[in-house]
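note to self: dont lose this again. the chain is below, predicted strucutre after it. 191 aa total, dont forget to put it in the shared folder this time
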Amino acid sequence: MEENILPKAPPTPFMPAPQKKKAKRVSGIAIFIVALLTIVLIILGERFFIDLNTWFNPANNYKHQTIYYDEYYPNTSTHTTVYDKGDYEIYRLLVHTAFVIPLLLGGFLLYFWMYYHHKDDHKKIIAWPYFIFSLWMTIHLIGEALYFFIDKYEKLGIYIVLIILATVLTFLAIYAQRKWQEKHLIEQPHE
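---
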């Protein structure tokens, strides 16, 4: 057999296949209504925080309670429970925590139930506002707790804030790097 000595055509350069545009899965009006629902839920939750504190905090009126001394016995007082600002803050944190923990668990359960048991259901969009609402209330509670620790225990509060900041920044850096690698189609090393 004779060898073909004619020049061969150069190989075609690698060109990625054109990507098809993804079909919209959510309407613009639904996104607007869900954003509005999220704002309404957050306002409702903030208002409920104030009312919870009014209803269930035994130290709610700590500024107005005083000790009355008996005129005839100067070293005695009537049996009045007196609260200070620290008592008020601790009770407020306990009342708000009792509300937020079930709310956070409910938001997570609703989100995961909708997204893993209802794959193509049109009701999945409702999970987002409730999930964001539960996260917002959790962040609000964490802010209250941090304020309490900074106010009462200055040095401990500073350490707590710095540790939380370091943790959040670590996870944000990992997330940003992963998204950048996905955008630039860099393969992740397998461990």
